Sequence to fold (401 residues):
Amino acid sequence: MNARWGPDEDEQTAEAGDRLLTVRAAEGDEEAFEMLVHRHSRAVLQLAERFMGSRAEAEDAVQDAFVSAWRSLPEYRGEAAFGTWLHRIVTNRCLTLLRARRPAADLDAVTEPVAPEHQSSPARAAESHAAVRDLAHAMGALSAEQRVCWVLREIEGQPYETIAQAVGIRPEAARARVFRARRMLTEAMAAWR
Amino acid sequence: MAMNHPHPDDPAEDEDLELLACGRDLATVWEQAGAAGTAGADPHTAACTYCRQAVADLEHLRAALPPVTAPSTDIDTAAVVRRVMDAVRLELRPGRNLPLGEADEESWIYESVAARTLRNAAQQVPGVLAGSCRIAPPGSRTSPARGPVTVRLGITVAYGLDLQATTRAVRESLARAARDRLGLPVSDVHVTVTDLHQPPDESQEARP
Fold:
């Protein structure tokens, strides 16, 4: 029944389609929700993997986020596009998981670099390869908030106002978190250079 | 700039005012490097050794980032979709019970199930996509009675279609499905056009 919402639609059509699917999902139409999960899972998995540093943890976080989105849909009023709303739920879920993972570890305490599997090969051939691994290691020392704000800023390229909203802090605080993360990461990477 | 005047209720931000040897604020230098993509935005930064070193450190960090456009084809979304839907199906929201069949029968149907059939019926009409579909039995919310139900359906219609003819066709299709496929007596059908959408498979020049 949903053949008309193909993968080639433009952004506007996609949003209009999302609106319709969201209304239906809010009324308990799980097929409509499944379409939404299909449409958005790739983007949020990628985001969550950047937050968490591992595919498995990202999948857990995304799964939890979707289920909690399903539960909250009846209260969702459509102020933000579904994608934006989901993005926030995923961000918050990852924040919670990151907070639980490490109580403010400092750099020396990090024993396990959280590099994705394909980056943890022992080969030190390329310098860029080593840099990617160093970065993954250094990121392990960031606090949950620093890490999330930094990913949203540096990788996702979001404005501080958006980051602040997603994380639930003031824009100045988001700016400060990003700065602290940058300072810690540049220092760590300079040390290994 | 806001960085130089931390909010009074957040004293921790004071620690972040880190000045380079040239007197420039590191956070600001980095922000400018981020905005301009290069160090060239500020003539001082371009010439200053300390600023350039700071920007180079940040660039070194950025070089280690995964590319934004990295293809993520190896992400197995199918498995995630399956697991999510398994969890979702354990906590369905079926809506209310609707009376099915004659007044003396004791048959019922979940609102969400009837709604699925009625939405599909509406979408049989070319150019129609169905959204909200609420089905209310007679009587009050707290004590629903058996009897013909009221259907409220939201649809979006492709640009260029005759709205009157389209909504009429939707009503007919919906009434037919309620009668023939569900056996659900319907007293009223309210159709609201909530939006117009771009018809699929349409060439650019055919657009209004």
Summary: Helices of chain A lie at 11-26, 30-52, 55-72, 82-101, 127-139, 144-155, 160-167, 171-192.
